[in-house]
């Protein structure tokens, strides 16, 4: 697999936002993962004090995309004692709007997955081929497409400034940002649906995708990036403030270039990523999911991570602690945090023992259309 740019070219692409100097790359922290964990806590506490001063966005709207099956042993790591081999997760997109200091309106789509093309991710494609159609229809529920939701919200495609994912697992961006050559499987040379949008992504992830490790291959679609235009990306190295109350924080571990969305709202700070699939995974002592509280107590684990890929597990654990430290308490149940999983655990009768104790379902901030 080769991208239309080399690894060195990624560094030279234009970027965006104001760099956050509070956070230190784990690779630059002296000592082992335990030392990095303590640094992550301190830095998150410092950023929690600073971040509200950046302001708040105008609005945040949650849009459901799809509910689909996911292996329990991945989503709840080694903690779950549920009999069900699969649980269900709901993928959601966040639409975030704000004004820059010069008054210009901005729109960020966080997790705008092209669900139709995402199905061809090797892992999910293989799962679909080995699942009877009648069962698949019961376990996969589509709620609305990215374009349907934007139409409902009155947002034109040309108005979208940024596309962002916590990582690029399953993502096929060809229809969103266009390609420079004919795509045989699509039967066309796609013109960008979002012609003015740039993809905010960590340099580390683009570099890793240029030559995937075998552990990564089931979850990426690298061939779909062969003909996408390099100028559609805004690679960043670390953490940035993108707008008032909108930050991108590097949280490596689930993938090398993982990143989390952090937003300041009327109810305080929210964090969103797929590092865990349920907010109770950050406070498992309060979970009624079979096995979680006992496992956390027995092994002195503060969190239960989402572990479909274990690229650097200790770093992922530390990143989740950073997220846990940043997020405010939920106003509806203070046992849980304002952590919004980009793929949230969803109870279904087909998956006994996997119904979450607590769910957010959505983030609401500002006017809702």
UniProtKB/TrEMBL annotation:
<protein>
    <recommendedName>
        <fullName>Metallo-beta-lactamase superfamily protein</fullName>
    </recommendedName>
</protein>
<keyword id="KW-0378">Hydrolase</keyword>
<keyword id="KW-0479">Metal-binding</keyword>
<dbReference type="InterPro" id="IPR051013">
    <property type="entry name" value="MBL_superfamily_lactonases"/>
</dbReference>
<dbReference type="InterPro" id="IPR036866">
    <property type="entry name" value="RibonucZ/Hydroxyglut_hydro"/>
</dbReference>
<keyword id="KW-0862">Zinc</keyword>
<feature type="region of interest" description="Disordered">
    <location>
        <begin position="350"/>
        <end position="369"/>
    </location>
</feature>
<comment type="similarity">
    <text>Belongs to the metallo-beta-lactamase superfamily.</text>
</comment>
């Amino acid at each position: 697999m080769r991208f239309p740019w080399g690894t060195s070219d990624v560094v030279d692409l234009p970027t965006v936002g104001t760099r956050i100097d509070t956070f230190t790359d784990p690779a630059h922290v002296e000592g082992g993962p335990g030392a990095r964990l303590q640094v992550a806590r301190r830095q998150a506490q410092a950023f929690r004090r600073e971040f509200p001063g950046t302001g708040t966005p105008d609005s945040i709207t949650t849009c459901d995309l799809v509910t689909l099956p996911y292996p329990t042993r991945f989503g709840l790591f080694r903690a779950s004692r549920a009999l069900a081999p699969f649980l269900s997760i709901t993928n959601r997109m966040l639409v975030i709007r704000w004004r820059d200091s010069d008054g210009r309106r901005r729109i960020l789509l966080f997790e705008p997955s092209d669900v139709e093309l995402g199905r061809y991710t090797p892992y999910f494609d293989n799962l679909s081929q080995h699942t009877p159609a009648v069962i698949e229809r019961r376990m996969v529920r589509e709620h609305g497409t990215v374009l349907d939701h934007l139409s409902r919200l009155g947002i034109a495609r040309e108005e979208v400034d940024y596309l962002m994912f916590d990582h690029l697992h399953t993502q096929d961006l060809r229809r969103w940002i266009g390609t420079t050559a004919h795509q045989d499987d699509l039967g066309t040379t796609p013109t960008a649906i979002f012609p003015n949008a740039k993809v905010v992504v960590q340099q580390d992830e683009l570099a890793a995708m240029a030559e995937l490790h075998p552990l990564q291959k089931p979850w990426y679609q690298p061939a779909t990036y062969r003909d996408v235009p390099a100028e559609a990306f805004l690679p960043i190295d670390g953490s940035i403030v993108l707008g008032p109350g909108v930050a991108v924080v590097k949280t490596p571990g689930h993938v090398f270039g993982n990143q989390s969305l952090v937003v300041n709202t009327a109810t305080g700070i929210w964090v969103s990523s797929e590092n865990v699939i349920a907010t109770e995974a950050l406070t498992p002592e309060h979970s009624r999911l079979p096995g979680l509280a006992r496992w956390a107590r027995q092994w002195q684990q503060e969190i239960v991570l989402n572990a479909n890929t274990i690229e650097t597990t200790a770093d992922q654990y530390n990143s989740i602690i950073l997220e846990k430290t940043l997020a405010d308490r939920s106003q509806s149940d203070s046992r849980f945090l304002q952590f919004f999983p980009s793929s949230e655990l969803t109870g279904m009768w087909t998956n006994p023992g996997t119904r979450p104790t607590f769910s957010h379902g959505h983030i609401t901030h500002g006017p809702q259309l």
